[in-house]
Write a structure and sequence with these properties.
heterodimer; A: seven-stranded antiparallel β-sheet; about 15% helix; B: alpha+beta; nine-stranded antiparallel β-sheet; globular
């Protein structure tokens, strides 16, 4: 176990007694004994802590053969060749609070000839939230509508993105700005989502949605399977050629833009005969209609369950008996084949195989509907003091791209502008990395990696740095070894400012 | 220093609440109407928040032996500790003998104040405060020592029983013992009283034998309230008559406390021998469990 005396305590007298100041009891601990909590102990005059630390390791060295990750994990204790790269995450590192003391681990490591320092701590994030992207056209709720969980508002519906509905959850106003219960429920909901667990939310005026990072969203009890191929107009553009010769008209029903083939630019380019079919809604440009129905969980994110209701009129001067009309949603999940009778009334008929294939093709081109969740938080506060004496220098180093920020080894996107506002995919962060404190606020791992000389220049706690080999020698046995997640880039110290 | 982090809080997989702050480790079970349970969890967390720093301020006085006059404590939990230890001041005792029980009772009181809570138990490292409606029944498993993972005894507490506090003390427990008992479990009307009595009775379960190792408390923990008093560090194999003698001493002590009405029931364990006193109803199950062994 590594000496954590300077982080969490102080030596007293000459009998090897260590005073632990991890809590107000301020135990004085004799060598070989533990404090009142049994979480801190004195080993040969050094204060130690036994909670396991998560080490992620990588068996990749440039130019050397790849060792399968899991094999490397199994061989870890015996040592493997080539020597695996190890990254110490902040999971289980603990945090010093208040943050005026150095972060629990400051690890120095030579990597690719560069002396690298990784400062490892668990941050307490009062300002944090989740941006949830739900790949569905179904109407989940009006923009700005509250998102409720266990009866408390934990967020709101925000600006929809292409093929996806977006929720913004958590944040300081729900955590600590509302009632105590609102804060607790928000914290618990965020924690569950960060731990890749499922929660159910309800949106007044909208839907009941089950959210889980990396899983298909469940809307009103129905699992979404497909993310739409595009909007109705885009679908017309993509499939127009494949429809030519098999159909006389196609209506792609979409809550955003419903496409009508023969009137659409795509149909005109193919010299298709105008069908005289007019759908409801407000015409944007030829063949593209807004607001054909209300948003809902029916066809293409509308509330339509009977697509015939979308047909406002059929112009008898243009339409003809036997005219063939395909109606489909943007995912191909809903489709209908119509033929006009002698009175030019649409009659439902069996869909020809060639047309059914195009509908299936729409489905093939849809990506699986997923819920994806970004954790977003501000690391620009007091936790910087555990990294450096002069926190603004760390902020500037991060902003300049000289300091890499990771969460449990997962890459973070830095939001431009002031502070250290970061976003990370919760699926890229190792399991059970997140915790909470009753404030309520989330606890999450955060690591800052930079070149050693830069760390010194930033006013870093250089004297607290320990060599990776030393840390491994003392913690490897108690630590949890996890394979490096495949998708995550190795967090090298940046070689210089971004773009340089 | 008002900047200590708030207590850690987690839900255990079985639905119990876990609160931890420094050496305070609470496992809390709450039953009742769901809104009441949710509210009670918040109340428990709120009750614990700030308690440890407040008690720490009074720690020097709390570690002083009780003598002729009741010291003036500011925090109600510190006062409860002293009150519970007070009847035992004829022998050496400090309010710290009741710290675990008093903390458990403090958090329990906050839970019990929530209408709709039918049953609650706050377990602070073996010192348990109970809240039972008249129709509730609680089964408490007892283990011989911290090493034994499986309960080998059972206490059944019914709502109509007076018992609202359970405490266990022994030399292998979290705090020092001057005796050699593997475990002394006490049932009392309140948790701090159970805690203090368990400490006193466990100290009394004692005998002289070369297989018993002792050391001054200060040599192990420089801040121990037991100062230079010898505490048990190891108990080797003991002849049967030494075990019997030690249990006799403990039983005599327990009988005195029963007679004074300070405790309701006591279970003493040493080297596989079990003695049961008082609280016939609750302990009957313990007796049966003991008979099965």
């Amino acid at each position: 176990m590594t000496d954590r005396t300077e982080q969490f305590g102080a030596r007293e007298g000459n009998e090897g007694i260590v005073r632990c100041d991890a809590c107000p009891v301020l135990c004085r601990i004799r060598p070989g004994r533990a404090g009142a909590c049994h979480r801190y102990a004195n080993e040969d005059g050094r204060l130690i802590r036994t909670d396991p630390l998560v080490l992620l390791h990588q068996a990749v060295e440039e130019g050397t053969p790849l060792v399968p990750f899991l094999d490397a994990a199994e061989d870890w204790a015996g040592g493997v060749t080539p020597a695996p790269q190890v990254f110490v995450t902040a999971i289980g590192a603990g945090t010093t609070y208040p943050d005026y003391k150095p972060a629990p681990f400051i690890v120095s490591q030579a990597h690719r000839g560069v002396d690298t320092v990784t400062v490892v701590t668990e941050g307490i994030f009062s300002y944090c939230g989740l941006k949830v992207k739900i790949d569905t056209d179904r109407h989940l709720g009006p923009e700005c509508a509250p998102v409720l969980h266990e009866g408390e508002q934990i967020g709101h519906v925000t600006t929809a993105e292409y093929g996806s509905q977006m929720l913004s959850l958590g944040g300081v106003r729900h955590l600590t700005g509302g009632s105590k219960r609102e804060g607790q429920v928000t914290c618990a909901a965020m924690l569950a989502l960060c731990r890749k667990q499922a929660i159910e939310v309800t949106i007044p005026g909208g839907s009941r949605v089950t959210l889980q990072a990396g899983a298909a969203p469940i809307v009103n009890g129905v699992t979404e399977t497909r993310m739409r191929v595009g909007c109705g107009s885009a679908a017309v553009g993509i499939f127009a050629q494949q429809w030519q010769g098999h159909v006389d008209e196609v209506v792609v029903v979409d809550d955003h833009i419903t496409g009508v083939l023969t009137e659409h630019q795509a149909g005109r380019c193919l010299n298709m005969r105008p069908s005289g079919l007019r759908v409801r809604g407000r015409r944007s440009t030829p063949g593209r209609y807004f607001q054909v129905a209300h948003p809902g969980t029916g066809w293409g994110g509308t509330d339509v369950t009977d697509p015939l209701t979308l047909i406002e009129s059929i112009d008898p001067k243009l339409a003809w008996p036997g005219m063939r009309v395909l109606m489909t949603s943007t995912t191909g999940e809903d489709s209908l084949w119509l033929e006009l009778d002698e009175a030019l009334r649409p009659v439902v008929a069996p869909m020809p195989e060639a047309v059914a294939k195009t509908v299936a093709r729409i489905g093939e081109n849809c990506e699986p509907a997923l819920t994806s969740i970004l954790f977003m938080a501000g690391a620009g506060g007091s936790l910087r003091a555990g990294v450096t004496d002069n926190p603004i220098l760390l902020t500037r180093g991060v902003q300049a791209g000289e300091v890499r920020v990771t969460m449990g080894g997962a890459p973070c996107t830095l939001w431009p502008g002031g502070g250290i506002t970061i976003m990370a995919d919760v699926l890229a962060i190792p399991d059970n990395a997140f915790g909470h404190v009753p404030t309520p606020a989330l606890v999450a791992p955060i690591e800052f990696t930079l070149r050693a000389e830069l760390y010194a220049a930033l006013g870093g706690h250089v004297d607290q740095a320990i060599a990776l080999e030393t840390l491994l020698a003392h913690h490897a046995e108690a630590a949890v070894n996890a394979p490096w997640p495949r998708g995550n880039p190795w967090p090298d110290a940046p070689s210089g400012p971004m773009g340089a | 220093m008002n900047d200590w982090p708030a207590p850690r809080r987690a839900m255990l997989p079985d639905g119990r609440l876990h609160l931890q702050d420094g050496p305070i480790d609470l496992v809390i079970g709450i039953e009742g109407l769901r809104p009441a349970v949710l509210q009670a969890r918040e109340a428990a967390a709120a009750a614990l928040t700030g308690l440890l720093p407040a008690l720490a301020l009074e720690l020097p006085l709390l570690r002083m032996p009780l003598l002729g006059r009741m010291p003036g404590f500011r925090h109600p939990v510190a006062r409860r500790m002293a009150e519970a230890a007070w009847p035992h001041r004829a022998t050496f005792i400090t309010p710290m003998a009741a710290v675990a029980g008093a903390v458990a009772e403090h958090v329990l009181a906050a839970i019990a104040a929530v209408p709709g809570v039918q049953l609650a138990h706050v377990n602070n490292g073996g010192d348990i405060a109970l809240h039972l409606s008249p129709v509730s029944t609680l089964r408490v498993g007892l283990v011989e020592g911290p090493q034994a993972g499986v309960p080998d005894g059972l206490a059944v507490i019914r709502g109509r029983d007076e018992v609202r506090g359970i405490a266990t003390s022994g030399w292998r427990g979290r705090s020092f013992s001057r005796g050699i008992a593997d475990a002394v479990t006490v049932l009392a009307a309140r948790a701090p009283e159970a805690d203090a009595a368990a400490t006193i009775i466990a100290n009394a379960v004692d005998a002289d034998h070369p297989a018993i190792s002792r050391a001054p408390a200060e040599s192990l923990d420089p801040d121990s309230d037991l100062r230079d008093l010898a505490v048990t560090t190891h108990v080797g194999d003991l002849p049967r008559d030494v075990v019997t003698e030690a249990l006799d001493h403990g039983e005599a002590c327990a009988e005195r406390l029963l007679a004074r009405g300070l405790v309701l029931g006591v279970c003493l364990r040493l080297k596989g021998q079990v003695r049961l006193l008082g609280a016939a109803d609750a302990l009957a199950a313990m007796d049966r469990a003991a008979a099965l062994r």
